[in-house]
Structure formats: structure tokens, C-alpha cells
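With this grant's support, we have settled on a layout for protein records. One resulting record is reproduced below.
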Amino acid sequence: MNKYWWRVLASLCAMVLCTVCAEPARAQTSEVKEKPPMYSYVGFWNLPRTQWADMEKQTAANQKNMDKAIADGTLVAYGSDINLIHQPDGYTHDSWWSSMSMAGLLSVLDQAYKSGSATSPVFVSATKHSDGIFVSRYYNWHAGSWKDVYTRVGYYKLKPDAPDDAVEALSKNLFVPLLEKLLADGSIHEYEIDTEAIHTEGPGAFWVDVIVANADGLDKFNAAVRDAMKASPLAGPAIGSMVDFAAHRDSLQRTNATYK
């Protein structure tokens, strides 16, 4: 994220935090509430280009089982991504699913191992692979299925001296109010703020994920942040007091997704 974006986010966060602090405590608690935990399993793969078409076939072959898990309530969402911004040490593809329980999440993983799909030739051909299990308490979506939409993910890392509730404060006072407006007007299909449920990263990492319908949706997202900045004075580097800018990274994927 460039310096302009950080000024935008710092301004928004400081403005909203100052406003919230000035309101009665009763008004604060009624704005954004933490939701029940939603767990997501993500498998990341670096595949040779010669295997990309086979990956599409493998994803299609898994769809029937995923749809069944959606129908019986085991899952609330599933999907797959193709990375559009490649890095030498990065991943080309991922597949994921989400559940309201760890048990539901792992039952689908267990099924993948028992069916043999986890060791299919296309996955064996991967030159790099890792998995992650994440948990979100701030999320929302439109129900439905989408093909060839876009996912933008921002990776952030808290400073060592950030308060214990830093992700909660940023989510309630900055991210969720803005993202709910974009969800309501149709600019985005889904958002979530994730932390690790099983820690493979260092402490303090969190992710802000947004699914938009098309490239115009990315422009609308950018415009919404710019407009919010213009509507309020620059109130200080609030995010800078909690987030380590040097660790920040963005990714952009082409996505197929289904949400219940």
C-alpha cells in the first residue's frame, strides 16, 4: 500500500476513533458488534503454468462435495482464487472453505484426504505449498455464487506495543463501517477481517479481505476511501500508532466463490 493509502486510512481511523470517544458509552456499543467466530481453511499452491488448466478441472471436480457441505450446513462458503500479481516466492492458486465451527471445517478437510483429492497429480506437481486456518469475528456477505470476480487482500501486522484489542478497535471503528456501506450499495459482495486460528505467522498479523464484482468495484472501493478522507480533516496517524507499515502487503486474485 502506498503512502497515500496510509494517509487515507490514518485519517479515517483517527477521525472515527475521535468521534466514538466523544459519544456516550451506550452509543458506542450499539454500532458494530463482534459476530460468532467464522473459521476458514485455505490451501496455497504454486503450480507450473502447464498445470493451471488441470487445477481448474480439479476445482470443478470438488464442487459437488462443496455444494453438499453448503446445503447441509457444514459450510457457509467455499471458493478458489488465481493470483493476478505474481511474486518469485509467492503462490499462483488457492482453494478455501469457511464454517461456523472448527469441526465443520476439519470434516471437509478429512473428506478431501479420504477421497484422494488432496494427493491428486495437480497438487503433487506443486513446487510450493502451505495451509492456513483463520478466524473472523467481523464479516458479512451477499448470498450467492460468483465467477471471475476479484478479491483484494491486505496483510497487516501490529506493532509489538499495540493494545490487545487493536484489531477489534480498528474493525469496529474503521473497517466495518466503511465496508458495510460498500456492501449495502453493491460495490462489494463480501468482506472479512481475519486473524490466525492456528498460528503459523508471528503474533499480531491480520488480514482485510474484500470481494468485488468486477474491476469497477475496485475503483468504487478506492473512491469510497478517498471520499471519506475528503469529508473529514486529517486527524493524525492513528493507525500508525498500532500498525507496522513496513510489513504491509497486498494481493489481488481472480475468484470463484459461493456464499450461503
Notes: DSSP finds seven helices and eight strands in the chain.
